[in-house]
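Request: When convenient, would you put together a sequence paired with its structure tokens?
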Amino acid sequence: VQLVESGGGLVQVGGSLRLSCAASGFTFSDYAMSWHRQAPGKERELVASISRIGSSTAYADSVRGRFTISRANTKNTIYLDMNSLKVEDTAVYYCKAIGEYVYWGQGTQVTVSS
């Protein structure tokens, strides 16, 4: 089983990034998926989640209206489109698969500079 995040990097305040999480080794469409983030010295927090077929999404208050989670079950991939980025969005971003088992990716760093 693998969850591989990509797309992180350094961006200025107000900029945009698209994160991807490619899954393998399990039946992707059987799993709800989510993005989480962890900033230095802080606990990991839920950013956004999406149901198995993408019909339902949910967001943390801090990102609602700026971030969009989506999935492509034909590609075994989820995405996180991040717009209007703020310094406080700086964190390591992780994807998570929730189903019969729980799987985590290794994370990708997002740094927003002022």
About this structure: Residues 78 and 91 are 18 Å apart (CA to CA).
